[in-house]
Amino acid sequence: MKLMKYMMLLILMVFQGVSWAERIKDITTIKGVRSNQLVGYGLVVGLDGSGDQTSQTPFTVQSLKSMLLQYGITLPEGVNPQVKNIAAVSVHADLPAFAKIGQTIDITVSSLGNAKSLRGGSLLMTPLKGADGNIYAIAQGSLIVGGLGVEGADGSSITINVPSVGRIPNGASIEREIANPFANGNHVVLNLRRPDFTTAKRLADMINHIIGPNNAFAKDSVTVAINAPKDVSQRVGFVSFLENLEFQPGEAAAKVIVNSRSGTVVIGNHVKVYSAAVSHGNLTVTITNTVDVVQPEALSGGTTAENVQSDIEVNADDNRMFRFPQGITLSEIVRAVNQVGASPGDLVAILESLKQVGALSAELIVI
Fold it and tell me: Are residues 40 and 29 in the same domain?
């Protein structure tokens, strides 16, 4: 223990003042240290007439009957209460890694039926289960709803945000812990958030340079395994030391991302264009309809008619051709496109055409 302490102090002194690009904790995650999703089904009560229309959501009535039966209240056969102050909801939350019994977590409550608003409601005790079917938390509390929905007698209505979804801060109490493999095995495994072989190799090399050779090795473009102490307290200190180290990750691959819905185009670094010529021009077609009224001659017995005449006008802007020289860079691409006044839609067409002719040295992604 003392040897490791002195070693870390020495390393910190040697590397003090060295400035790198990224911390390990910002670009990696630790294998096994993850959150788990929880979900449950419950009832929200106390609504001001904005709950489910129980005639259309029979599961809400069924849930109400089941709850009342647990408290010794049995409704007569065939009686279905028509109450508007309750709503069937789903409850979901994320259970953080290392969460302990008695701690609380935030929950989100969403309407399952046709409730118009959950504002002012209270969630009754709702078990939250994991994917394995076990109960890990119990949720209950008053909802905070950010939306607003009102309706007039004539059927007119106005809705702001989404009033059928609410949150309860610290609304669930943890009742069961999830086993975590963090302390198992002889290695701590780091997973890169962005897969990259260069980054994985640089990370392993940097760690080996600091703590000694053959202690870290890259398994693939995501995973880097590091020899770690078996004692839990020492392993925590070791990981704390590792995640604050800084190093230079590999640069991303050349990509051009096009959002076809919004017209947004993002061009990454290292995007180059081989020698190509581009012609850019706009064609405007205007069609104008003129309606003439035609009157019949006197005493002819004819009827008044309408004669529609169409005038078609075609305007073509001056076509502009520009040439991309060999190995043009990102800034030069943007400058050339801006000079001809191309819109985002035109830029998308230009990039797609360059990709088809093999002049674009980048991955073109359309989302």
Answer: no
Q: How far apart are CA 32 and CA 41, in angstroms?
A: 28
H or E element in which residue 286 lies: strand 283-294
Q: What is the helix (H) or strand (E) element at residue 61, kind and residue range?
A: helix 58-70
114 and 142 together in one domain: yes
CATH at residue 239: 3.30.1360
Domain count, the chain: 3
More confident residue, 133 or 5: 133
Rounded alpha-carbon distances, angstroms, from residue 17 to 20, 240, 245 = 10, 19, 12
Which of 65-79, 111-125, 213-227, 255-269 has the lowest average pLDDT? Answer: 255-269
70 and 167 inside one domain: yes
The domain of 337 spans 255-282+314-366
Which residue type sits at 80? N
CA gap 301, 303 in Å, rounded: 7
Considering only 45-49, 198-202, 257-261, 332-336, which range has the smallest mean pLDDT?
332-336
Which tokens belong to 239? 């990981």
Cβ atoms of residues 282 and 316 within 8 Å: yes
**Shared domain check, 93 and 208:** no
Reading the block at residue 264, the tokens are 């947004």
Q: How many CB atoms lie within 10 A of CB 10?
A: 10
